[in-house]
Amino acid sequence: MLSTVSRQLKSHPALVPLFIFIGGGTVMSGAYLLRLAMGPHVSWNRNGNPEPWNKTEPTQQHKVVLLSEHGLQQAEERGS
């Protein structure tokens, strides 16, 4: 299969930028997914640390996600 692709690239040199950009996009998206998967907020080991949010430092920043409109309205009323 690789020999077929290289043969096509030799006969159609206009395809080279296409392969470069598609390959680069694939590598960059894979790197981004790896970065997301290895973040501190992701728990891959349920047995060793089932609740990682309980072992955070007081100075560590946290993300808060409101999943309902009611929660958003309450946050606006509090001034947050």
Automatic annotation (TrEMBL):
Cellular compartments annotated: Mitochondrion inner membrane
Cross-referenced InterPro entries: B12D
TM stretches of this protein: 14-34
Keywords from the UniProt entry: Electron transport, Membrane, Mitochondrion, Mitochondrion inner membrane, Respiratory chain, Transmembrane, Transmembrane helix, Transport
Protein origin, superkingdom: Eukaryota
Family membership: Belongs to the complex IV NDUFA4 subunit family.
Name assigned to this protein: Cytochrome c oxidase subunit NDUFA4
Gene encoding the protein: ndufa4a
